[in-house]
Amino acid sequence: MKRLSLSLPTCLLACLLALPQSLWAWSNHTLGSYIALQQLPAVAQAPEVEVEPLESFVSQQRAGLVQLLDEQEAYAREHFRQYPPRPDDLRLTEEGRDDLRKAFLMALRLNPEIKLATAVQPPPGGELPGDELQKHVALQPADVLVFRNLSGWNQWRFVQLQAGEKIAALDVLASAADEPDFGHDINLFSDNPGEAGQRYGFGPQPFGDPRYEFSSQAPFHMGFYHEDAIIFTGAPYLERNWPEWRAYQFYGLARFAFEKGHPYWGYRFLGWAMHYIQDMTQPYHSTPLPGETTASMLWTAGKSMAGFDADKQAAIQRVADRHTGVERYEVDWLRETLRQGGQSPLLAAYADVSTDGSYPPYSTEYLREVVASESHAHAAAFDAAIGHWLENEKAPAGDFSAGNSPEPFRHDEALDEQIVQLIRHFGAHSRNIAKAALQP
Ligand SMILES: [Zn+2]
Residue 100: what pLDDT? Predict the structure, then answer.
């Protein structure tokens, strides 16, 4: 039974992770964060913050940061599953290294090539104060993201801010919630291109196809914590993912920055931490194969090993179809929402605070024990609803005229219901981590 460890999940994940982008609702975190966090007075009514370059924050707080990062490393070695210790030569020190920004990024084991543009994405349909005076310069995706292929971001708006400028806390926080997808976790593994992967100690990329530009971030943005033990025994690489460590690092940095009087960096780090929490609300991020049970995974893997590969191929195809299918569904729903003037249960779900208080207070375990666990529990129903919708979609649309008019968006009630629930989780957890970080 030894070969089991490499057969089924490896292929499925390689296929899954080769997909270009995650779901819409989760692929632009800024839009959802604006709507979710507008409901939180601590953010919406926070005083404006002054834009500060990273170098200024790190050089002013260097001694405290050295201590914080040392404490974080010690904690991480103790507490996080399959945590690869940080090589000591990456440690931030009080002396030396001219390039403080690079030293800081490498001590966090982030991609040292990230742009860290001092920019925000304006609120949906909104302008920033001063835009009418053309005070803000628009940035191109290439100024913001590390990817060579930027076609997925053509429609996004980024505006540059100047050091010392005052800006709403909400703009900083909601914009930062998208940032970890701009390259933070790209090429950190030893079989990825570039220098960082050779030095960081993460070893080879545990899953995802390392040839794809986007896939190398997957083990930091997906977290499989709630599979049966037999799955982890058979496929130990499924434990090599670290979103809870990332959330821990950035949440700690946010608390530190607020406490030391650097609120701009407080909100920015908080947005980064929030991103990993938000990613985990997506069942395809918390569950390697939504819709598969432990028994069915083992059965399919066993058949494949015996030479009967058809079930495995079908499983791969099913997951890929549903993943891309629901992405299309959500984009269509968003378009319909915009045509109807911005009102829909989809957007209302981000702002729905009714369940916020039903969760325990934010803690280091929150990502795993609360968010991933809830998301994992929804995976089968989400997958089934997508399957149901895809089945019905094949049926003829009914009696409207076969003219040139585009077919109206056809809702699937069960799928709407699933998406609304998941988006409600996204909003609630975003507010809960912000609430905790902003507590004095
Ligand atoms: Zn992500």
Answer: 94
The total of structural domains in the chain comes to: 1
pLDDT for residue 244: 98
- Residues in the chain predicted with pLDDT less than 70, given as ranges, are 1-27, 97, 124-134, 209-212, 316, 396-407
Residue 194, CB-side half-sphere exposure with 13 Å CA sphere? 19
Look at residue 401 in the predicted model and tell me its pLDDT: 47
Span from the CA of 29 to the centroid of ligand 1 (angstroms) = 8
How far away, in angstroms, is 314 Cα from ligand 1 center?
A: 27
Distance 144 CA to ligand 1 centre (A): 15
Q: Give 306 Cα–ligand 1 centroid separation in angstroms.
A: 37
88 is a domain residue: yes
Burial class, 70, CB count within 10 angstroms (exposed 0-12 / middle 13-18 / buried 19+): middle
Residue 327 CA, ligand 1 centroid: distance in Å: 15
Residue 426 CA to residue 419 CA, distance in Å, equals 10
Distance CA 211, CA 228 (A): 30
pLDDT of residue 58: 97
Q: Do the domain assignments include residue 191? A: yes
What is the Å distance from ligand 1's center to 279 Cα? 6
To 5 degrees, how large is the angle CA 27–CA 46–CA 179?
A: 25
Q: How many whole angstroms from 278 Cα to the centroid of ligand 1?
A: 8
Element (H, E) at 82: none
Which chain residues have CB less than 5 Å from ligand 1, an ion?
A: 181, 221, 279
Q: Is residue 401 part of a domain?
A: no
**What is the extent of the structural domain holding 348?**
2-395+409-438
Domain assignment of residue 403, yes or no: no
Task: For residue range 228-255, list pLDDT tens digits in order.
Answer: 998 888 888 889 999 999 999 999 999 9
